[in-house]
Amino acid sequence: MLGDLYSVWLETRGAAGMEASEKLNFSLDEIVKPPAPDLDPVAVSSSGVTVRWTNPHWSEHFAHQTLDCELRYKTSKDDVWTCLDAEDVSQEGHELEDLDPFTLYEVQARCFPGDGQGFWSEWSPPQPFRTPEAAPLGQLDVWQKVNLPENPEQKRHLLWKALDQDTARGNILNYAVDFLDNHKTIVASLVCVCCNVSVPASASYAQVSACNSAGKTPPAILSLEQTDLPGPWEVRVLPIRSLGLNVTWKFSPSAGAAQPEQYVVEWREEVSSELLNWTRRPVGCSTVLLRGDFRPKEPYLVSVYAVYAQGSNSSAPVRAYFQEGVPSAGPHAVQDRSISSTVSLISWEEIPLANRSGLLTHYTIYLKPPTSRSPKVYSPIGATERSYTLEGLEPGMPYQLWMTGSTSAGEGIASPVHHFRTHGAHWQIFVAVLLSVGFLLLLAVVVMLIMRTRVLSFCHKVLPLWCWERVPDPGHSLVLVKMGVQGAALAKEAPYQAPAKPPEETDVLEITEPAPPQMIQPAPVFSGYEKHFIPTREELQRLA
């Protein structure tokens, strides 16, 4: 019973006899341990948070003795408790102060006998509660999605990041968006949910505020204009395994030029052109580590913007890969064009972006002639090249050709095999034509000799008489020959004398060939048709 004195000791028996420990004298009042208190639901109001508890088991047996209690509380995501000593906590309840708005907390309590004898009770089961909302803090991080040069028809979008729980301090109900023109006159206002909206064509500025039940944030203002002021240059992106993409850049403003207010580094997927995220860096900073869910073999575009009060200007986007792989396809549309019998120009189209899996370092051409088992390798060929000249080929030979692309991860899959044939040499063509013509001529002569009689007979039937009839040559006449000999002899015997009178005219005997017999013309036959339609001679004379 309470108030009685008890003694406790320990005895042991062994071969050496029995031994006993020292006695421990105590009273039950000195070792009492209260049960854990029962916490009531936490009372949350706009004025504060009140925690109350009871201990019915202690009140039943120790109604004459009070309890001193301690409290501890923490946020649900933390592991460290905030403790309130018994001197600061009343026996029945306590009001918690300086809590973060709209935050989930846990609270526990334990008690100790008021006379200072006994032990602390166990901590009560945790009682969760959430603090009331408050107006959100800070400003939104607002940015715009600028169209890429290859997609100018896409609309611009205004983007912003949702507030985290610490700055939202409540449930964000909506966002108030205002678009303004160059004169800061509102051209459009709307209330929308998170976290993007199309930009009107006439808008030059945008301002966005986040709203909850207790208030809203100050408006975040962004200039939507693109300025000609200097932008970053020499942007480099280096992947860092298991961390992200490390981006560096340079900026050298001209003397007297305006200074940027800050830098914005954005990254997007190049294939889908989806803007993933952006981050801001202060002026004077020239590097940032981008962290995110970067996928291997996927191309990303990284751009750095210099942000001014008048607008922004960006660097050229840089393609980057978090982890490269080998290309999953070879170059497309491989073609050949013969320059000569020993030279061919090979052209191709670059590997599609979705199949590159990395930054191309070079191309490789494999050329296999029919006389060789192993192909001849032409490498490296620059990644920006789209054609290559093959020299030293054999004339008139068929070839097989295929190509591959390579990244830092290695050589990729080959393109389909392309077949082509070189032209023959010019002297070979000349000899072939000459032999063909000679053979045809020889064949024609042989045919003429064999078919001479038939050919002549055919010509006699087809051609006119004058084409094939043999006409005597007067120069070969025997009469003229004899007359020529006699004239020459007379000329030698008699001297030349001028004629006293004109020479006598030679009698000419005219021989008239009989006229060919005339063909009897058949009498005309009149059918009566002419009488109706053809005019008579008398009618023609009258008309004349």
TrEMBL record:
PROSITE patterns: FN3 (PS50853)
Occurrences of domain Fibronectin type-III (ranges): 34-134, 231-325, 330-425
UniProt keywords, alphabetically: Glycoprotein, Membrane, Receptor, Repeat, Signal, Transmembrane, Transmembrane helix
Keyword Repeat: yes
CDD domains cross-referenced by the UniProt entry: FN3
Main localization category: membrane
Pfam families, sorted: fn3
Domain of life: Eukaryota
Residue stretches spanning the membrane: 427-451
Protein topology in the membrane: Single-pass type I membrane protein
Full protein name: Interleukin-27 receptor subunit alpha isoform X4
Provenance organism: Eublepharis macularius (Leopard gecko)
